[in-house]
Specification:
Length: about 70
């Protein structure tokens, strides 16, 4: 099952590798997103978002638990 998480913040992107360049994403926003995604699985949720994201949404989605 596919799960995802949303958070907001600054992210640094660096391209790493000698033969094949691949993006590497770093920052507190990435770390927080990974952690909150881990909370989605035990709760049986497909999408989990931080309060920071929920607070900036202009139209709150129907059925969202907070």
């Amino acid at each position: 099952m596919f799960r995802s998480a949303l958070h907001i913040g600054e992210v640094m992107v660096a391209y790493v590798g000698d033969l094949k360049k691949q993006p590497d994403f770093r920052g507190d926003a990435m770390n927080t997103t990974v952690r909150i995604c881990g909370h989605a699985k035990p709760r049986g949720m497909h999408l989990f978002m931080s309060k920071a994201v929920y607070d900036i949404l202009p139209n709150k989605p129907v059925g969202v638990q907070h």
